[in-house]
Amino acid sequence: MAEQITIERAQQLKQKPDENKLGFGQYYTDHMFILEYHADKGWHSGRVVPYQNISLDPAAKVFHYGQTVFEGLKAYRTESGIKLFRPTKNFERLNKSNARLSIPPIDEKLAYEGLIQLLNVDRDWVPSVEGTSLYIRPFIIATEAALGVNPSLSYLFMIIMSPVGAYYAEGVNPVKIHVESHFVRAVAGGVGEAKTAGNYAAGLNAQEEAKEQGYSQVLWLDGVHRKFIEEVGSMNVFFKLNGVVVTPMLNGSILDGITRNSVITLLKHWGVPVEERRVSIDELIEAHHNGTLEEAFGTGTAAVISPIGELSYHGEKYVINGGETGELSAKIYDTITGIQNGKLEDPFGWLVALD
Ligand SMILES: *Cc1c(COP(=O)(O)O)cnc(C)c1O
After folding, report:
1. How far, in Å, CA of 35 to CA of 211, rounded?
2. 277 vs 229: CA distance, rounded Å
3. Helix (H, G, I), strand (E, B), or coil: what is residue 103?
4. DSSP characters over 184-211
């Protein structure tokens, strides 16, 4: 029997922020979704409740051993109602991350139903100004108060939501990226392909160093050879080399991005050659010398497409496409955002209507 989700509405609603000044992850909606797990009971007590603090024992395992996973997806307000972009993929991926972090699998249907109920209650929070959306953050934390190093016997799954602004306030702008040759993000066999907190904590120092030097993100190389391209910050990465679009294959240390998957699908649909394979930094530099490194861009839910205008590696600077957004990058961006906001047809059935 399907478990019942209860709804407790907030007594007082918050004032909504100015949709033109949302930024990213600064405001939270009136409600949140909570689902509990205990080894004896499984996942249970799903409920929509007013957005609130949570109380945890200081010994809760998440604080000590980082047993936690998260997801990120968006809801869009279109002329034909509120739409989610490929949401079932996020819940599938959540369970893949769970498996790697020894967190019990969640009932994907129940978690998704929780999201739908939450969205229903907070539907007025989906912003309508062009480029804005409601960012949705599902996550799981280990809550058992016990310092032994073993999987927690209890967990909380929660969903919080935040109205976010247009990622590029003044149109899509290429970013400068530092190719990191000292620190690494992940290695195959580790947790690089899970969306788990430790990967991000481990990347902060390199990111801060890159920022000090005027770069907005880090391009990670593989942890073994320090040679093969992995990802950019928390985005997957693509290069257009002599007309062929190349992206690192899923090798166990990078994230299986849903935007990455959407971009590959779109390119194939257009008949643009696309290859998932190993790409070395040397290959990119050689292509740059030959004039065949035509475009580069990152992909992720937050920015969708983030064009790369410059790479720095071992003190050398490599400007790509004159530091401008490439034609193909712009076309992909316009197409995916157009599908998301309902202005373009959705030939792949990516959008899911809330109602
Ligand atoms: C979330 C994330 C991505 C992008 O995934 P999307 O599903 O496209 O949002 C890429 N790399 C890392 C490390 C991520 O955390």
Report:
1. 38
2. 10
3. coil
4. -S--TTTTTTS--HHHHHTTHHHHHHHH
Look at the pTM and tell me if it is higher than 0.90: yes
Give residue-wise pLDDT tens across range 66-78: 999 999 999 999 9
Task: Find all residues with CB under 8 Å of 240, minimum gap 6, and list them.
Answer: 246, 293, 294, 295, 296, 326, 328
Distance of CA 279 to the CA centre of its chain: 22
Ligand 1 pocket by Cβ (under 6 Å): 72, 195, 231, 234-236, 255, 257-260, 299-301
Using one digit for the tens of pLDDT, what is the confidence trace for 222-237?
999 999 999 998 999 9
Among 162-171, 287-296, 315-324, the least confident range: 162-171
Atom number in ligand 1 closest to CA 72: 9
Question: Which residues contact residue 141 at a Cβ distance below 8 angstroms, ignoring those fewer than 6 apart?
Answer: 56, 60, 62, 67, 68, 155, 156, 158
On whether the 6-164 domain is CATH 3.40.640.10, my answer is no
Average per-residue pLDDT for the chain:
96
Name the band, by pLDDT with cuts 50, 70 and 90, for residue 173: confident
The DSSP bridge pattern shows strands 6-7 and 42-50 to be parallel
Q: How far apart are CA 304 and CA 302, in angstroms?
A: 6
* 200, two tokens: 């991000």
What CA–CA distance (Å, rounded) separates 127 from 80?
14
CA atoms within 13 A on the CB side of 88: 6
Inter-residue contact 177 to 218 (CB < 8 Å): yes
Locate the domains of the chain by residue range: 6-164, 175-340
CATH 3.20.10.10, applies to 175-340: yes
Q: Which two tokens stand for residue 131?
A: 């480029």
Q: Which atom of ligand 1 is nearest to the CA of 199?
A: 13
